[in-house]
Amino acid sequence: MATQTQTAAVDFDWAYVPTRPGWLRRMGRLARQHPTGVFGLAVLILFVVCGLFGERLAPYPPDELSVGVPLEGSSVEHPFGVNQLGQDIFSRILAGARISFIISFFAVFLGAGMGSFLGILGGYFGRWLDYVVQRSGEAFAAFPGLVLFLTLRTAFGPGLKTFIIAIAIGALFGGNRVLRGQTILEKHQVYVEAARAIGCSEWRIFIRHVVPNVLPLVVVIMSGALGAAILAESALSFLGLGPEEPSWGRDMSGSNLSLARQGYWHVVVWPGVAISLVVLGANLLGDSLRDIWDPRLRK
């Protein structure tokens, strides 16, 4: 019997054992399964590049006057046309991505990221930590965001720092209540009880088991926070409360609206398209990453 077992082990052909495909092949398979996520990733990569190097990539200085005929339509020299001051709209859109990128970066990683972590901590450990986080969120919800921004604007002045602080605070308590409820559901699952039964510490259960299962929801909340930050900055700039630097919301405000009604639609359409594309790309990428990372959605 032992001889037969050894012979079977020697005669086994390892060529038939399936191997894990390479990372490039896995990425290609994910791209085919989630084309909308690929589109969202491409849009966000373009947005980041424009936010970092937009002013250098612009064919004209964004604030320079009379670079073309005022209110001229699309042409080879000015793909998106010229506004009423003779400024190149394409250059202003590239330069305006910087403000949206800075504000959305701090809103996502400083506001939504920290708020998500606090919501997960409060939902899992409870007690005084959960009480402090939830009561702080309720107090902030009763305080209008516009009033908070105007208060900070009065205290710190109408600069970029004021925008970052106001929008980051708004993102801090945006989704932690949802994450708290999901964390409470996860910590009562059977796999958590099994990990606790074999002697795992609470922090190990929290990091290795609970956080990975809540992470897909965190991605969705952070992608929504990115879009909300860009929309908030555009709305405040549209109202004339934004910084003096080129901004997508600023280019859609004031006399530009009346010019659009007179037939010069390119003055406001292209900044609006830029805002819509970035917000759509962030939401599509967040939904695709949720589908990829959520263990309950895997085939």
Strands, helices and their partners?
Blueprint: H1 2-11, H2 23-33, H3 35-57, H4 89-125, H5 127-141, H6 145-156, H7 160-172, H8 176-187, H9 190-197, H10 202-238, H11 248-251, H12 255-261, H13 266-293
Helix pairs in contact: 3-4, 3-13, 4-5, 4-7, 4-8, 4-10, 6-7, 7-10, 8-10, 9-10, 10-13, 12-13
Short description:
The protein is an all-alpha fold and 299 residues long. 73% of the residues lie in helices and 0% in strands.
Report on the structure:
The chain is mainly alpha-helical. Helix content is 73%, strand content 0%. The chain contains 13 helices and no strands. The longest helix has 37 residues, at 89-125.
Keywords:
mainly alpha, 13 helices, MetI-like fold, disordered N terminus, 299 residues, 73% helix
Enumerate the spans where pLDDT stays under 50 for 5 or more consecutive residues: 1-5
How helical, in percent, are the residues? over 70%
- In round numbers, the mean pLDDT is 80
In CATH, what is the class? Mainly Alpha
Helix count, per DSSP?
Answer: 13
Helix and strand succession?
A: HHHHHHHHHHHHH
CATH architecture, by name, is: Orthogonal Bundle
CATH superfamily: MetI-like
The major sheet is characterized as:
none
